[in-house]
Design brief:
Blueprint: H1 7-15, E1 18-20, E2 27-30, H2 37-40, H3 59-62
Antiparallel strand pairs: 1-2
């Protein structure tokens, strides 16, 4: 087996430890040490609780985009469902 020294492998493996930017998919914040079950439920459907809703921007996208929180429209059923 090849050693994990190739730059692409380091980037890919490291990316798994970050919440990805909701615009570009880049690293938004380090989340490998977040064990709150509500956060884990955002990516693990076997977690026994309702997931929190979270959106984040990487530093580059935060220069040109913003996250807006607003009340859901009637009939919006699930997390991560775009209504616009």
């Amino acid at each position: 087996m090849a050693e994990l020294t190739h730059p692409e492998w380091r980037t890919t493996m490291a990316l798994n430890d970050y919440y990805q930017c909701d615009v570009c998919g880049g690293k938004a914040f380090y989340d490998a040490n977040i064990y709150d079950s509500r956060y884990v439920a955002t990516y693990d459907p076997t977690e026994g609780c309702d997931p929190i809703a979270i959106k984040a921007l990487c530093p580059s996208c935060a220069k040109t985009h913003e996250v807006i929180v607003r009340e859901k429209e009637a009939g919006a059923a699930s997390l991560n469902t775009e209504t616009e």
